[in-house]
Structures are given as C-alpha cells and as structure tokens.
Amino acid sequence: MDAELARLADASYVLVTTFRKDGRKVPTAVWCARDGEELIFWTRSDAGKVKRLRRNQNVEIAECDVRGKQKSEPIPGVARQLDAAETDRIRKVMARKYGLSGWLVIYGSKLFRGRDATICYAVSST
C-alpha cells in the first residue's frame, strides 16, 4: 500500500471527492479502514457518490474531521465497488476499527434497512 494511502487508512474520517458529469468536485466525509493494499469505505447504496462512482471511478482522498474539513492534501485514487460477500467482510473490518459505535451503526443499518442498503468501495492509488 502506498505510504500516503496507508496513513489515510489510519485516520478516523477521510474526505472522498467524486466528480459530477461536468467535472465539479463533490467531497464527502466517510469512515474508512485498511484492507490489504487498499483503503476501503462504507456508504449507503442510495448515496449520490454511488451514482457518480458508477460513471467515473476516479476519486481524490484526503484526511478530514467529522464535519468534512480537509486536514491533508488530497491524493488521487481509483475506487471499485465491492461485491456483496466482500461488503459483508468489510462491515466486520469497519466495526472492529470503530468499536461499539461502529458496530451499532453498521449492524443497525443492516438490521433496519437491509443488507443491500449499504455497499463498500476499495480505493487504490493511481
């Protein structure tokens, strides 16, 4: 894993910036974790970033605070959507990283909204 991406994977929040059709940037603060050589993030499957990522997998990743205030320079990356089995595995990784609050949010979402209500993405550096 790229050293910069590894540093970001240890952060509590990262700013994932996706791109609209016209090229405008749309930053969003998300939880993240490390999975092998990739940074992973978890999101609702009906989020706007999912639609944008279907069209353009290029992203910028930077460390941020809970409100999305950028704390580091962005690095370019490519995101790929994980399948259902990988998403289930990553939910456990995320719950481990974020402790009780992670477990409550992730498994609460799965219980009340269903397993297809959230998906995970893996980001590798370009």
From TrEMBL:
Keywords: Oxidoreductase. GO terms for cellular component: cytosol. The keyword Oxidoreductase applies. It comes from the Bacteria. Residues 6-95 form the Pyridoxamine 5'-phosphate oxidase N-terminal domain. GO terms for molecular function: coenzyme F420 binding; oxidoreductase activity, acting on the CH-CH group of donors. InterPro entries: F420H2_bilvrd_red/Heme_oxyg, PPOX_F420-dep_Rv2061_put, Pyridox_Oxase_N, Split_barrel_FMN-bd. Pfam families: PNPOx_N (PF01243). NCBIfam families: Rv2061_F420 (TIGR03666). This is Pyridoxamine 5'-phosphate oxidase N-terminal domain-containing protein.
